[in-house]
Please model this.
Amino acid sequence: MGPHPAVAAIRLAVRRVLHDVLNEHSRDTEAAGAAGAGTRTAPEPLVLVACSGGADSMALASALAFESRKLSLRAGGITIDHGLQHGSDLRAAEVVSRMSGLGLDPAEAIAVRVGREGGPEAAARDARYAALDAAAERHGAAAILLGHTRDDQAETVLLGLARGSGTRSLSGMAAVSGTRGRYRRPFLEIDRQTARKACMVQSLPVWDDPHNADPAYTRSRLRQEGLPALEKALGKGVVEALARTAQLSRDDADALDAWAVQADPAVRDDAGLLDCARLFALPPAVRRRIVRRAAIDAGSPAGSLFARHVEEVDKLITSWRGQRAINLPGRVVARRQGGRLVIRQS
Model:
C-alpha cells in the first residue's frame, strides 16, 4: 500500500525539484572539470529547507528528508527566530529538534533582528531572507526549499493587484528565484490543505503562527476575509484561477523584461545617461522597466518601489513641463536635466 495521496503529492513535488538541483550540480561539476578547476570528486550537494514549524514547511521538511535518502544529496534545515513573539526562541529550538528527528543535518535556528522599513511584514521578510542567504553561503548549500503553496501564490497576486504594481507583481512568486536560483518553491501547485493533510496523516506536529490570523497584517486579513469573500461571490476555483494568472503574467513579464534589457544600451548617451527622447520612443511597458531598473541600481529598494513611483518618474519623460525632481524610496532622486533622466541617491 502506497503513501496517502497528500503525502505522495508533496513528495513528488519535492522529488522533481531535487532532480533539478542534482542535474544542475552535475552540469556545474562537469563544467568545472572541463575548465581544469579541480580534479577531486565534488561533494554531494546540500539542500536546506526553511522551516517555521507550520504545516506547509513541516510537510516540506518531511518530504525533503524522505526523498534525500534515495538521492545523492544531503538535506538540512533552517528555522528563523524573528523575536517578535514571547517564547519565540523556545519554539525555534523545538523546530530544530523536529528537523533533527526527521534526519535533517545541519538543523539550526537563526535569530534575527527585524527592522521597521517597509512595515512589519516586509521588514520580517527582509530579515528572514538575509539570514537564509547567509546560511546558504556558510553551509555551501545548493538550494533552499520554501513552503509557499498555491494559496500563498493567490494571496500574492491579489496583493499585487490591490497595490497596482503592474504585471511583474501579478506574476506572484517564481518557482525558482534568488542568486543562482538559490530559492525553490516546490508547492506552488499544491494547496494549503494538502500540505496540512500530509502532516496529519504522518502525525507531524505543526505550529499555527498567531500572526497568520492577526488582522493587523494585510496578508492575514486577505486570508481570513478577502479570499473567502471572493469565493462566496464568484464560486470555488478563485485560488486556482489566480495561480494561473500568476503564471501567464510571469510569461509576459519575462518577455518584457528581456526586451527592456536589450533596449537599455540604446537609450543611453555616451556618458551612460538615459536619453529622454530615446526613452519616449519605446513602448511604455518597456520604458518603465528601464526606469525602474535604473532606480533600483541607484539604491532604491525593489520592495518599496511601487508602480506609482515609476509612473511619476515616467512623467519626466512623457509629460515634461519643467516639474521638480521626484523623490523615491532609499533617498533616491530622479530629475530631468538637459534632455537626460538622471537618477541617483541624494
Summary: The chain has a mean pLDDT of 91. The longest helix spans residues 5-34. Strands lie at 46-50, 74-81, 107-111, 143-145, 176-177, 183-184, 274-275, 326-328, 332-337, 340-345. Residues 309 and 328 are 7 Å apart (CA to CA).
